[in-house]
Design goal:
eight-stranded mixed β-sheet, about 50% helix, two-stranded antiparallel sheet, about 475 residues, 10 strands, alpha/beta, globular, about 10% strand
Length: about 475
C-alpha cells in the first residue's frame, strides 16, 4: 500500500536534514541511499522514532509512494543526477514527478525537463540554500521546471521553507525550464561576492593591527545595523572561536579557498549575456589566486609593496569599512539583478524579482536585512532596470560613498588587495558616467579590423568605416559586435 508523500534519494547531511524537516511538518518520507547501510544508520540514529520509511532499492522506494509519485534527488550535481534519473524512470508512471534539489547547472535542468516530458514525466529543478542548518530548520527553496508539477510539490516545499514577514514562505515558483537552478546559481554568485567582501574587510582590519577579539566585536556591532546578515553573523562567530588552549582557530586555517563551480557558472553566463558582473567575477578570481599558495609564498619574498603601516584613526577606518561593505554589497546585488533581468528576457522566464528577494530574505546563505528593501523596490517598480535607480539605494550609496572611497585609497596605500571593493567602486563610477572612452576603443577596432563605428551626429544603427591610414581600403567587416 502506498503511504509515503515523497521519496528522497541521497542521505548526506543535506538530504537527512531535509527529510527530518519534512517529517517534522507531518509529511511521510521514504528514503533510499546508494550505500544502503546509510539507510539503516539513519533510521537508527537521527530518524529513530520518526515516520520516515527506509527502503533498500529504488523499486522499493517508488512502491511506497502515493500518486503522483514525487521522488527528490539530493545527490552530486552532473552525471550522478542523470544516472539516478535513469535508474528511477523505469519504475515511474505518466504524471509522476522527479525533483533535483542539488546545485545543478541550469542548462542541465532545461535538458532534463524536456527529456522527461517526452516520457510523460514531470521534472522540477529546485535550488535549495541554507546549508545544513537551513535544510533542517527552514531553507530557501527556488523551484522551476514543469509548472504542472508545482501544485503537487508546493505544500511540502512551502511547509519546510524558512518564513519571513509574518509567515511568508521563502519558496515560490520561479519559472519554467532551468529557471529555479538559474536563480540559485545567481544566489551563489552573490554569495561568492559577499564572502570575498567580508574577507577583504577582515584583511584590511588585520593589516591595521586589529586583533581577532577586536574584529569579533566590530562584526558583532555591524550585524546590528545595515550589514545585518547571515554571513556577518557567522563571521562574528568565527572570529570569536577559540580552541582549548585559548588560541583562535581562524589563524590556523590554510589560506587556500575551494569552490564547487556555481560562482564560475555565474561569471561565464554573465559574459555570454554581456552583463558586467564584475564583482562576482573578481570574487571567483580571488579564490583562484588564493589557490596559488606556493607561488605566493615565493613571490612574497621577492616582490615588494609600499612598505607602509597603518597609522591613522582606527575608528575612522572601521566606520569607512562599514560604508564600503554596504555600498559594495549594494553593487553586488545590483549586478546580480541586472543578470537576472537579462536572463529573464533572453530565456523567456518572466522572473518575479520581488518574489526572488523574498525567497532570499530568509533561510539562505545570503539572507540579509536589506533584501527586504530590494523586495520593496521591485514591488514599487517591477520594471526597475537597476537597483541603483531606486530611491532607497540611490540615497544609501550616496551616503556610503565617502567611506567607500577612503577604504579603497587606504587599501592601496597599505598594499592590501581589495579586488571586490575596488571593482565595485569602478563599476559605480562607470555606470554613472555619461561618456566612457569606448569611442576610442571603437576607433581602434575600426583601425585594425574595419569593425565600423556609430557616430554621435548620425542616427543609431548607422555604421561607418574610415580608411585611417589611406592604405587600408574602404571595405568594412561584415559583422559588428559591441
Amino acid at each position: 500500500m502506498s503511504k509515503a508523500d515523497i521519496g528522497l534519494i541521497g542521505l548526506a547531511v543535506m538530504g537527512q536534514n531535509l527529510v527530518m524537516n519534512m517529517n517534522d511538518h507531518g509529511h511521510t518520507v521514504a528514503v533510499f541511499n546508494r550505500t544502503t547501510s546509510k539507510v539503516d544508520d539513519f533510521l537508527n540514529d537521527a530518524a529513530k522514532g520518526s515516520n520516515v520509511i527506509g527502503t533498500h532499492s529504488i523499486e522499493e522506494l517508488v512502491a511506497t509512494l502515493k500518486t503522483p509519485r514525487r521522488v527528490m534527488l539530493m545527490v552530486k550535481a552532473g552525471e550522478v543526477v542523470d544516472k539516478f534519473i535513469d535508474m528511477v524512470v523505469p519504475h515511474l508512471e505518466e504524471g509522476d514527478i522527479v525533483i533535483d534539489g542539488g546545485n545543478s547547472l541550469y542548462t542541465d535542468s532545461e535538458r532534463r525537463v524536456k527529456a522527461l516530458a517526452e516520457k510523460g514525466l514531470r521534472y522540477i529543478g529546485a535550488g535549495v540554500s541554507g546549508g545544513e542548518e537551513g535544510a533542517r530548520t527552514g531553507p530557501s527553496i527556488m523551484p522551476g521546471g514543469n509548472k504542472e508539477a508545482w501544485e503537487f510539490v508546493k505544500p511540502i516545499f512551502q511547509d519546510i521553507s524558512a518564513k519571513v514577514d509574518g509567515g511568508a514562505p521563502c519558496c515560490e515558483w520561479v519559472g519554467n525550464g532551468g529557471a529555479g537552478h538559474y536563480v540559485k546559481m545567481v544566489h551563489n554568485g552573490i554569495e561568492y561576492g559577499d564572502m570575498q567582501l567580508i574577507c577583504e574587510a577582515y584583511q584590511l582590519l588585520k593589516s591595521a593591527g586589529f586583533s581577532n577579539d577586536e574584529m569579533h566585536e566590530i562584526f558583532k556591532k555591524w550585524n546590528t545595523g545595515v550589514l545585518d546578515s547571515f554571513l556577518t553573523e557567522i563571521t562574528t562567530d568565527i572570529l570569536g572561536y577559540k580552541e582549548e588552549d585559548g588560541t583562535h582557530l581562524v589563524d590556523k586555517i590554510l589560506d587556500t579557498a575551494g569552490q564547487k563551480g556555481t560562482g564560475k557558472w555565474t561569471g561565464i553566463n554573465a559574459l555570454d549575456l554581456g552583463m558586467p558582473l564584475t564583482l562576482i567575477g573578481e570574487a571567483v578570481f580571488a579564490r583562484c589566486l588564493s589557490a596559488q599558495k606556493g607561488q605566493r609564498v615565493i613571490a612574497s619574498k621577492v616582490l615588494v609593496g609600499p612598505g607602509t603601516t597603518f597609522s591613522g584613526d582606527k575608528q575612522e577606518l572601521v566606520d569607512s569599512l562599514e560604508q564600503a561593505l554596504y555600498a559594495s554589497k549594494i553593487i553586488s546585488y545590483a549586478q546580480g539583478y541586472m543578470l537576472l533581468r537579462e536572463a529573464s528576457e533572453v530565456y523567456g522566464w518572466d522572473l518575479d524579482f520581488g518574489a526572488i528577494a523574498l525567497m532570499w530574505r530568509g533561510g539562505c546563505i545570503i539572507r540579509s536585512v536589506f533584501l527586504g528593501n530590494i523586495k520593496d523596490a521591485f514591488v514599487k517598480n517591477p520594471d526597475l532596470e537597476n537597483l541603483l535607480m531606486d530611491d532607497f539605494f540611490t540615497n544609501a550609496i550616496h551616503q556610503a560613498q565617502e567611506g567607500w572611497r577612503k577604504t579603497v585609497i587606504k587599501a592601496v596605500e597599505l598594499g592590501v588587495p581589495t579586488p571586490c571593493f575596488s571593482t565595485a567602486l569602478s563599476f559605480y563610477d562607470g555606470y554613472r558616467t555619461e561618456v566612457l572612452p569606448a569611442n576610442l576603443l571603437q576607433a581602434q577596432r575600426d583601425y585594425f579590423g574595419a569593425h565600423t563605428y556609430e557616430r554621435l551626429d548620425k542616427p543609431r544603427g548607422e555604421f561607418f568605416h574610415t580608411n585611417w591610414t589611406g592604405k587600408g581600403g574602404n571595405v568594412s567587416s561584415s559583422t559588428y559586435d559591441v
